[in-house]
User: Fold this.
Amino acid sequence: MRPPIDTDLLKTFVTIVETQSFTRTGDRLHRTQPAISMQIRRLEEALGKEVFDRTKRQIQLTREGEVLLHYARRILPLSDEAMSRIDQAGLSGIVRIGTSDDYANILLPEILRRFAEAHAGVQVDIVCDNGVAIERRLKDGLVDLALVACRGPVSEHELIRTEELVWIAASPSLARGRPLPLAVFPEGCVCRTTMAEALDATGRDWRIAFSSDNIGAIHAAVRSGMGISAVERSLVPAGVRILNRAEGLPLLAPVHLCLKLNRHSASPVLDALADEIRTGLAPTAFRYEPQAIIMPEATLPAWARAAPPRSRSG
Assistant:
């Protein structure tokens, strides 16, 4: 059996293909052209095959070279990822995350599980509060990073993804409530503010029917028919219905999921966790299984129908 191919030789080989030049490859890899040529000879000796067609004036691969290129482009990223993981394996310390209850319960568990497997020596502390309070804690140095929903323009390096907000309820009949009953987080929640502004802009009366800082309690209140709420489309829980414009509710402005770091807390531990969160929550990576279902028209319980109106301020 032949010995495994040195990844350094594979990197040189791939770079030659990309640059179409031994000279430019030497410049990129900080080696002389004779050194680059020597590496290719070593690679071909290890393979027992030529990877470049030397009868051609331009850089052109042999059939064996094309096969090798396919695998080299898979091997090198995995090698880099493995080395990065190994370099970080000895990390230790404490990192403090500030976020909302729904993000802590829905977005972060799987990400933190993977992080803990890779970095057993790191202690992760989570502080749950509304977005305004979390950003204040970040500014005061009480948390190292903040995973929060933001409105309006945001910094490109803080943005993870943009989310559509949708109305959810146990039944579309709730949308006909006068005033409209809402189940919300306390003041300082971006979704609560977005709902209130959208309803005010259309002149729709509303009231706070239920308020909690616990996402499970809010979902339960919505499923029970106590009120309607708004959530990111990707985070719609099971057992509720997404309401559309036909129910007479206003369109909601989107929110941005942002990761903000306390630069005074800069450390390899913080960078490693931030990278894990960005990767895990990227639009192409994150999946939340529970989804809205179409439910039959529900009859609201008497306690929900008779709930007294409250002021718009809640």
Summary: The CA atoms of residues 185 and 213 lie 5 Å apart. DSSP finds eleven helices and ten strands in the chain. Confidence is low (pLDDT under 50) at residues 291-314. The longest helix spans residues 63-88.
